[in-house]
């Protein structure tokens, strides 16, 4: 069992810009991760298993629906608190943050925003406590970056819809109780449907052999003539903008989450560099190692400021999708680069499960791909500033 010695870097006194509530929420999540996630996560990642026993703890720290109103079981917090919770969870492991992101932004958010009152009352309180776990099915075998081409479809069969198709690479799928599934109707319009485990013809085989996000369960969603009750269609928004609206919320959380992974790698490398003696001196006294560490803290600080400003804009309802893309792209790439550099600071020890760095590094290879790839987010910025779509 690994001892978690993490000390959070705050080079620009960003804590001074946070409210007391932000700090309380952040510290509760930080303490929980230290006590509950850090001691076990390496073992679960090595076993390629999601630690289900942490679900109730995630709910208790407000990670399931941080910004969903308390009337529906959410924590009723602002967007900066949501970001800080994601940062702390991903400091522990990106896969655990994935579970929280999917539950909050890809399952609770669409039910709250696009659902009717009956759907909100039926699902949100149970999702907030972790009694129900959800997943989000957008990606298909033939349609990843371009979900508008999706082939999953449903037909009106009088008293129900008949759903057919398949989704791939779906986080939480193997154990999810419900799935928010995006599918086309007979006119080719995209709608969201709530599909429940146990519906005949619905199966969720697990995807094995991952070298990344090993502590997160990933799977397929297969729909073979699944009868979905009509009341399970999300009525208040349709078209590709509906799933993309959910992604905005999740991508925002990832922009914060990636900072957590980067902080953990930096903190580990700094401590190791101060302790590891080579050529009669700590390697921290060597210029090449200082360059690595100094660049890491510079990039973390820039990412913190980017995320905080984006959080302020989100709180004011002013953040654009393109601004969110920029932050997701920058902060994840920053974290991955730091993980790679930090691993080198530890030499051979960097590849060992005794330290968290290699796990973060491998996890971030998924984070840089999911929720829109690094390239797609660049093209979103490109389209936004030039007015020309280059997809
Ligand atoms: P395009 O013509 O640009 O847009 C279609 C409609 O959608 C609107 N829209 C958005 N609405 C809300 N938020 C956004 N971010 C939006 N972006 C676009 C747009 O205004 C338009 O509306 P309307 O009313 O005019 O129809 O669509 P396109 O087909 O050209 O595609 C654009 C593109 C490439 C940016 C988009 O498809 C995209 O983002 N692709 C990446 C796919 C992706 O991110 N998949 C993620 C799957 S979920 C996942 O990975 C979960 S990982 C688990 C975890 O989170 O931990
Ligand atoms: P592709 O779209 O095939 O892209 C391949 C490459 O081509 C990429 O480098 C991409 O940037 C590039 N490319 C694509 N289009 C262009 C273009 N126009 N111009 C230039 N380059 C381009 N999806 C869900 O729906 N729900 C989930 O819960 C979920 N969880 C995931 C969990 C994990 C661990 C992983 C790895 C993925 C998950 N995904 C999920 C899927 C993820 O969103 C997709 O993998 C991602 O959107 C990219 O799609 P793709 O893998 O099909 O790559």
Could you characterize what this model shows?
With 391 residues, the protein is an alpha+beta fold. It contains ten helices and nine strands. The chain has a four-stranded antiparallel sheet, with helices on one face. Strands 1-4-5 form a three-stranded mixed sheet, covered by helices on one side. Strands 8-9 form a two-stranded antiparallel sheet. A hairpin with a 3-residue loop joins strand 2 and strand 3. Helix 4 packs antiparallel against helix 6. The protein is globular. The model has no long low-confidence stretch (mean pLDDT 98). It binds 3-thiaglutaryl-CoA and flavin-adenine dinucleotide. The site of flavin-adenine dinucleotide (FAD) has 21 residues, from strand 1, strand 3 and helix 10.
Write out the distinct hetero groups bound to the structure. 3-thiaglutaryl-CoA, flavin-adenine dinucleotide
Number of strands: 9
Rg, alpha carbons: 21 Å
Mind summarizing the main beta sheet?
Answer: 4 strands, antiparallel
Provide the β-strand percentage band: 5-15%
Pick out the low-confidence regions.
none
Q: Structural class per helix/strand content?
A: alpha+beta
Mean pLDDT: 98
Continuous helix count: 10
Give the end-to-end Cα distance, rounded to a whole number of Å: 46 Å
What percent of the residues sit in helical stretches (DSSP H or I)?
Answer: 40-55%
Strand order of the largest sheet: 2-3-7-6
The run of helices and strands is: HHHHHEEEEEEEHEEHHHH
- Write down the overall geometry: globular
